[in-house]
Amino acid sequence: MKKKYYLFLFILLLSSFTGAEIPELNQRIVDYVQTVIGKQVDRGECWDLAFQALNRNNAEWDGQFEYGKRLNPGKDRIFPGDIIQFKNVKITYSVGQMIYKEQMYQHTAIIYKVKGESNFDIAHQNNSFSGRKVGVSSLDLKTIVRGKIYIYRPVLKN
Hints:
Helix content is 25%, strand content 39%. The protein is an alpha+beta fold.
């Protein structure tokens, strides 16, 4: 019985130090994304999804491609609701015997789910699989072979 008690205490303590709670603004952005999956937001451009998610939640951003506080995905914890900007990105990955290649010259997405340190589900539109409607697809940062990504944490307006 004592072993179970100590294990429970250890798990409780560990969970309090992980900082696993999604920031409130990020959660509101994810909540918005959930309401538009399968729908076209504005003109259906990728940027329109971030535009609406940020503006509807009183987030501060430059109105172009800087969506809040810039993060370092190698050092900073990434949460659902963070915004990812792709610039001249080429992705290559394989599933079984098939090799897939994607290119994103200038593309915006919202991190919908964090599946691992560099592995996410992203919500975006104006892409090859969901067209101009919001869809969710997987992204592993390790599959990026060229280009740059920028990840931003949304921040509230003062």
